[in-house]
Every structure is written in structure tokens, then in C-alpha cells.
Amino acid sequence: MARKYAPPSSNPERLGMSRFLSLAEAVELTVRDGDAVAMEGFTHLIPHAAAHEVIRQRRKRLTLIRMTPDLVYDQLVGMGCAEKMIFSWTGNPGVGSLHRVRDAIENGWPQPLAFEEHSHSAMANAYEAGASGLPCAIFRGYVGVDLPKVNPNIKRVTCPFTGEQLAAIPAIRPDVAIIHAQRADRAGNVMIEGILGVQKEAVLAAKRSIVTVEEIVEDFGPRSPNAVILPAWTVGAIAHVSGGAYPSYAFGYYKRDNAYYKVWDTISRERESFLAWMKTNVIDEGPGVFAMHARKNALAAE
Amino acid sequence: MADYTPTEMMTIAAARALKASDVCFVGIGMPSAAANLARLTHATDITLIYESGTLATKPSVLPLSIGDGELCETALTTVSVPEMFRYWLMGGRITIGFLGGAQIDRFANLNTTVVGPYAKPKVRLPGGGGAPEIAISCGEIFIIMAQSKRSFVSKLDFITSLGHGEGGDHRARLGVATKGPTKLLTDLAVFEPDPKSREMTVTFIHPGVSRAQIADNTGWDVRYAEKVGETPQPTARELEVLRALHSRTARAHGEAA
């Protein structure tokens, strides 16, 4: 039952996909019901606009993968898009719990949520293994703790050279990776600056990908020779959504709206207030609303 | 008489434990306050690292999240998260890991996962994040936590990160070469591991705190070192720098100080 590794170049879904689409088209063509979807961004560059589009298109039975499920996954879970979540830290950073995720785990509302829990180190290593085309990640971890007792995907392997016992977990190889970045050039290359998280690894590990960007530029211009760039041929759909990471932030464009994260605690606490907010701000809106939010926040930060 | 709060005393005691030569892996919240207080007072040259990949960062305000822009803008360099956990943490380049938790036991094992059974928790906590590997990969671990019977428990509901395990040489038996928790800074006292049993033992009591108060806020029979000292009171400068840091932070995050 060993799963054979298919290199990206042999994956017909992958080739020739790097193209500019509207966000609605990108989601429609890339995300299918039942997919394993990784939306990444470590506090920075979280793809909020794309997540909202997934909600508007009513995707179902998704397995949502993310190191730090925060507001985006609270919204997707609360709107019934997910049947499973794979994560290493879940919460509203600096504020508290995710009420919708907890309601799903504890009460099965709006549907039960299965979950697979890891540590950050494990998930970061598993994304890297996925990007490397390896079947599993090997690292020094999970010693003397209880997670291996409740997560059968955590195993131990012995180093064939030293005999050291190491932890192993399966590589993360999502059907779809969704990220937000600062810029794409006309050729469809994507550049990321600031806190990088695991976005590059997530895109390279995934079968398909969507990148939303603040700007599309003719050329990236002067830059460090070591700038972090995903070449066009590694990227699926690119959608121009300025402000698309709001209320998280985009380094060089706008700051994190910390107040929004705090207000979310109140909005998401009750099912009714959550649904009302989602209707007004997501279901009845489009990606265009993000540019306005981000602009206001950039001005406020000056 | 004292014009400082127990939380301020805890943060200041924790800051004092850090040295300028330390490379410190910092968690959000109280560890971050203590580590930055150290940097802004006696340990100017300390290297602070946050798991979002920011190396040698010097934030002027405390981050609300682990990846605030402030951390990246003031860092020497920012690396990817896999690199952070592989080269820098697992590679053994961090001297101190600074952790907090929801529950702790007498051997400084920590729980940030669940209260109650894992499958049907009473309270679902955020989970381990970086802590399970921070706890075994850093040279030593400092823990900062306010004491209460709910958080200082005789038995953890879930072991999220390893302290001294079951005590004695348990870490070594598990193949872990690092020291583990060497200091636990609370709002009442400073605990350090007993040289043999590795049980966290009170070595300093904060000014004005009684042993009865410590007993009332700990879920096990607290042991005391043979010689227990009194933590020096916060100095005017320590309080001034800490309060200025908190009020800058509150302004930056859009709330009243």
C-alpha cells in the first residue's frame, strides 16, 4: 500500500496552469469538494480573501491544513466547509480561543470536525518533506509527550548510522495550496517578502495552487539576488486581490488590524452573530472589499 | 507598601534570569515581556528569536502575535519557518527556551493542549505549537507562569512538552541531552530543580509572600531548598522600563494603556 511519489513534472494538472484569473475563477477551477487544502501564512500574508471566496462557492468536506488555524479557519469551519483539520496551534493569537472551531469539535456544529494534531516543528518539517518529494519527515521531536499516544501518524524511526531514535510523520502533500504574496510579475513569477512561514514549501508540496497578490508588476526591479521567488512554472492560478491578506498584514503594504482580531472574539462567540457577520461581510460581498479595508488600515498606520 | 503588582514582580524576576550572552527562543505573552525587559535593561545584547523566523529581533513594542511585522522589521534577518525549526532550534543554537503554559506539574512538564480527556475535552487549549521541540532542543528552559491550584496541578491532563518527566534522570533515559527547565518564575516565587530528584523546588520567595500563600496556590506539597532567599524588590528603573514597554504596546495595538 506504499504510495508512489509522482513528481510535479509528471502531474498533468500542474503543467501550463500558471495564469492570471479572477479570484472567483481561480477557486472555481482549483478547489474541489473533498480536497485537502493548505492555506498558509504565519500571522503574515494570510489568504483571507481567497478563504472568503471558498466560503462563497460553498466548498464542502475539505481537509483544512494549516500550522496556525486562526480566523480564516474559524470562518471556514463555522460555515461548514470542512470535515477535518490538520494543525499545530489553534487560536486567535494574543486574544483567545477560536469559538467556531471549538463549537465544531465540542458540539459538532455546524458539523463534526475531525482533527489531526502536530507540533510546529513536525508540520514545518512535513511541508518541507512534501516540497522535497519525500514520503515522510524525520526530525528530533515528540520525546516524552502525549501527542504520539493520540495521533497514530506520529511514529519513530531509527537512524541507520547512529541508532538515534527520531520522530517521523507523513509528508504534507495537499491537493491545493493557497497563499497570498506581495507581487507577481507579468510572466507569473511570485515574490514574497518578510515573514515567510511555510508558503513556499506549501506551494511546492501541493498538486495545485492559488496565489493572490497585492500587485502585478511589469518587472520585480532591483532586488537581492536571494529574493524569495516562486517561478511561474511552479505556481497555479494567480489572482490580483489588493488587501487580500487583511486583517493580517502584507509587509510593505499595510499593517495587521489587531483590533479586528479582538472584535472577532465577540462576533464569533455566538452562532447567530457569526452567521449574520458572515452574510454581510462575506456572502454578500466580493474580493473587491479587501482593497478598501487594507487602504484604510495602511492610512491609519501612517 | 509595595507599589508594584505580583505580575510585574514575576516578569522582572524572569528578565533578571536572562544574560546578554543568551540566545533566547521567545514565546508570546509573558515570556516576550520578560525577554524584552531584559533586552531593554541589563542584557542589551541578548539575541531574541521568535518562531516566525525572526533572528535577533528588537521590537519596540510587544507583539500581539508571533509573527507581527514589528518583529521582522527590527530583526537582523528573517528565515523560513522550516529553517527556523531545523537549523536554529533542532541544530542546537538556542541557549534558553522561554515558555509559558496552562498547566504545570512538579517536574515542570507542561500542558497547553486540553483540560479533561483528549477526545472529549472540557477545555480545548491551543495546542503545543513550538513547545514540544523547544523543550528538548534548547540548552535550558525557563518557564513563567502565575500560580493557582488550577494551573499548578499534581497530575497533568496531557503532557504537551517535556520537563523533567517523572523526575531524576528521566530526560537522560529518554535520550534527551539538554538540561530542561532550570527556572520556574511565578508571581510568588522562583523554583529551581532539586539536583537529584529534579522536582521544582522554591529557592527564592518574592517580598511579602508567605509560604502559606504558596501552598494555597499549588496543587502539590511544595518543597523548599535548604536555603531560601528573598527575591530583591523591583528597582525603580526595572518598573519604569517595563511600564513604558506595556504602555507603548497598548498604544500600538489600539487600546487604552
Protein architecture, described:
The complex is a heterodimer of chains A (302) and B (257). Chain A is built from ten helices and 13 strands. With 302 residues, chain A is of the alpha/beta class. In chain A, the strands form two sheets. In chain A, strands 1, 2, 3, 4, 5, 9, 10, 11, 12 and 13 form a ten-stranded mixed beta sheet that branches. In chain A, helix 3 crosses helix 4. Chain A starts with 18 loop residues before the first strand and ends with a helix. About 4% of the residues of chain A have low confidence. Helices cover 28% and strands 20% of the residues of chain B. In chain B, the strands form three sheets. In chain B, strands 4-3-2-1-5-10-11-12-13-14 form a ten-stranded mixed beta sheet, with helices on both faces. Chain B has a two-stranded antiparallel ribbon with strand order 6-7. In chain B, strands 8-9 form a two-stranded antiparallel sheet. The longest helix of chain B is centred in the last third of the chain and has 17 residues. Chain B has 257 residues and is α/β, with parallel strands linked by helices. The interface between A and B is large, with 51 and 54 residues.
